[in-house]
From TrEMBL:
Listed InterPro entries: MFS, MFS_dom, MFS_trans_sf
Alphabetical keyword list: Membrane, Transmembrane, Transmembrane helix
Name of the featured protein: Major facilitator superfamily (MFS) profile domain-containing protein
UniProt cross-references to Gene3D superfamilies, sorted A to Z: MFS general substrate transporter like domains
Source organism per UniProt: Kutzneria albida DSM 43870
Transmembrane stretches, start-end: 16-35, 55-74, 86-104, 110-131, 143-161, 173-190, 221-247, 253-275, 287-305, 311-335, 347-367, 373-394
GO molecular function: transmembrane transporter activity
Residue ranges that the Swiss-Prot or TrEMBL entry lists as coiled coil: none
Highest taxon in the source lineage: Bacteria
Its membrane topology: Multi-pass membrane protein
Location(s), subcellular: Cell membrane
Amino acid sequence: MTATRAGQTTETAQSVARWVTVLLATASAIVSSNIYCNQPLLGTAAAALGVPPGVLGLVPTAVQFGCAAGILVWVPAGDLLSRRRLILALTSVSALALVAAGLAQNVPWLVAASFAIGALSPIPQLVVPLAVALDGGVRRGRVVGTIQAGLLVGVLVSRTGSGWLAEWAGWHTVYWVSCVLTIALAVVLWRSLPDDPAPKGAPGGYRAVMASLPRLLARPLVWRITVSGALVGISLGAFWTTLTFLLEQDYGLGAGVVGLFGLVSAVTAVASPASGRLADRVGHRRALAALVGLVLAGWLVLWPGGQVLPWLLVGVVLLDVGMWGSQVICQAALFTLERATHNRLNALYFVLRFSGIAAGSSIGSLAWSTGGWTAVVLTGLLTGVAALVIGVSARTGAAPSGTQLAVAAGRD
């Protein structure tokens, strides 16, 4: 009877963990849509504000640098404070940043609001360690993949829907709709998200948590994974920023059609859990090599895509699946380290990742202005090769034991 009750308790706990994972995946979807909804709007907003399209490349750059800053400030606190309270507070305040973007009438205003949107949106980076902890870490790769699938659904809806909405009701409307959805999310999370007591593994307070970041980054596995992620991020930022320019200027397509390219995220969302299972099955090095290899294959296919639309479509699928799949692998690799440091590890990874995306947005715009699509593709290939070499050289060990966790928590 005792064994039966224990089995029932385990089943109930797993059921709750799955339900919370779905809820957190939904939160990631809505928040990620706030981050990426600007991409199909660049051409339309530039015309409305009377500036060249390249100037609006500052908007995604500001969002991504804001994300990096927000992750650096807020996510490490998840190893010290209640993640539930952090998630609720950030979700609520981010609605105000969306209001500011909806009221923007010039480029500096829009750029400042975009930075605030990014800085208040590290929700996916907080929910992943929470979901892994609630699941017990047994299905680490699968949980990370599920959360990222939710994030990618948000990217899909924002890239596809925001372009059509901008053509139909103006680009400001996109931010107002995002604001309403964010407020609704905050209400649902307040009512439904389980309480998450403050972790006990970070003595010394917030200052000690932040001071431990350089030591964590100095670990060979951590710096190789984070640098590899940043390099893939450069590819990501360069591609999605310049794709708008390519489709509107060379193919003559409007914002609505540009947004349809976001449908590729549907394929990526399906592939993300599979990437997590691949990491669980064959190990992180092999899985990362396969996914970054897809990034390189995507850029090679995209080279003729500047003139041939079918090649462009195939290249987008390969590139996006490789980019987001490699992110699942990188996070799963970092989560083999001490659980008490997971929020800080996630913060380090995404600070570099979003810094890479932000740099890629600017580098991509510069490459487009100086050398057109060929220069953009060469940028993607060079960063992809570097990401492959650095990332595959990272080795992971077995997940640490409970004793190791306690020792490491005190050390870091």
